[in-house]
Specification:
Elements (H helix, E strand, L loop, with lengths): L1 E4 L6 H12 L3 E2 L9 H12 L9 H19 L6 E2 L6 H10 L5 H16 L13 E6 L2 H11 L11 H19 L5 E5 L9 H18 L4 H10 L21
Parallel strand pairs: 1-3, 1-4, 2-3, 4-5
Helix pairs in contact: 3-4, 3-5, 4-5, 8-9
């Protein structure tokens, strides 16, 4: 199993689709369009910012919604080799902790959430005996400037800093949390892609470079063999710049 990670606007969902297409496997996306809690969550953040509520009454609900959906997707993804998920369950506690630190949720809610997450993770090996982590974690690392540019391009109003100026502080704080997360992550091999340097969305050579990095890492961790690696490398010669504009991330959980 291959899992993407990274902040909003990093391009996780687009790379999930690109990589799954190249590997001939299935992509799995975090829900946004069928998420009934997300609009409530953004309204709850506004209530906190305007002093109408001490905490966001929907933060715990949203995190639980995502956790439940993600656990379901993990079970589906593990039915075949090298399926790709656009969000990591290992990032979930980061977002709940951040909501507490920003005053959007309480310590009690965090403790209940973390206990639920830990309990669920104990069942992880039941899906595939002995497997407690993805074969490869791919983090797309981007700066604040790149993130904002991509958020503007895909045009979701509730993600825009012009619509909600409080998001400036949130986004910058989240970037700092991710700096710590990528340093501490040790559940599986981790490949960090420089999302500022490589524009795999609109630059064909950059896309080839990023895919080559991923293929090399998949070979290193044993997810593909030498023959498959050679096949994938040779296929880059015929790669075309498929347009995934506007998809950059199918998730919006972190755009609190």
């Amino acid at each position: 199993m291959i899992v993407m990670s990274g902040i909003i606007g990093s391009g996780k969902s687009s790379m999930t689709r690109i990589l799954a297409e190249q590997l001939g496997t299935e992509p799995f996306y975090e829900p946004v369009t069928d998420n009934p809690v997300l609009p409530m969550f953004y309204e709850g953040n506004r209530m906190v910012a305007d002093g109408e509520s001490e905490t966001n009454p929907y933060a715990y609900l949203l995190q639980t919604f995502f956790l439940n959906r993600r656990f379901h997707m993990i079970k589906q993804a593990m039915k075949q080799d090298n399926n790709v998920l656009d969000r990591s369950i290992y990032e979930d506690a980061l977002f709940m902790r951040l909501n507490v630190d920003l005053g959007n949720a309480t310590e009690v809610e965090y403790d209940v959430y973390k206990d639920t997450l830990d309990n669920m993770m104990e069942e992880y090996p039941l899906f595939t005996p002995g497997k407690k982590a993805p074969d490869l974690m791919i983090m797309i690392d981007v700066s604040y400037e790149t993130m904002i540019r991509r958020i503007k391009k895909r045009g979701r109003e509730y993600e825009q800093i012009e619509t909600d100026p409080s998001l400036v502080t949130y986004y910058k704080t989240l970037l700092r949390y991710y700096d710590g997360w990528k340093t501490d992550y040790d559940y599986s091999p981790l490949l960090i892609i420089d999302g500022d340097k490589y524009d795999f969305m609109e630059n064909l050579e950059d896309r080839k470079t990023v895919l080559r990095q991923i293929y090399d890492k998949l070979l290193e961790v044993g997810s593909i063999d030498n023959a498959k690696h050679l096949e994938l490398i040779e296929s880059l010669a015929n790669l075309q710049l498929t347009n995934h504009e506007g998809e950059y991330d199918a998730d919006a959980k972190e755009a609190a």
